[in-house]
Amino acid sequence: MPGVVAICGAGNLGRRHLEGTLNSGQVDAVHVYDIIEGAFAACEQVVGDLGAGGAEGVLHRSLG
């Protein structure tokens, strides 16, 4: 059942969760939240390498 996934923290562990989520092919959207700008570069690399698999990827620097 496809859905929406939120990953809080885009560091090493969050990046691995993002990889697994995108590889699963079971999600419509992935929201990644982190306060550190540099963490998003690694997540963008993962999406570039794996593709989003049809999922929408959204990076958030704040929850507001």
Describe the structure concisely.
It comes from marine metagenome. This protein is an alpha/beta fold.
Describe this protein's structure:
The termini are far apart. The protein is built from two helices and three strands. It is α/β, with parallel strands linked by helices and 64 residues long. 17% of the residues are buried. Helix 1 packs parallel to helix 2. The longest helix is centred in the last third of the chain and has 14 residues, at 37-50.
What is the general shape?
globular
Mean pLDDT: 81
CATH architecture: 3-Layer(aba) Sandwich
Number of strands: 3
Can you count the helices? 2
The fraction of residues assigned to DSSP E strands is: 25-35%
Uncertain runs: none
Distance between the termini: 28 Å
CATH superfamily: NAD(P)-binding Rossmann-like Domain
Rg of Cα set: 11 Å
CATH class: Alpha Beta
Protein name: Gfo/Idh/MocA-like oxidoreductase N-terminal domain-containing protein
InterPro entries: NAD(P)-bd_dom_sf
Key structural traits:
globular, Gfo/Idh/MocA-like oxidoreductase N-terminal domain-containing protein, NAD(P)-bd_dom_sf, 64 residues, alpha/beta
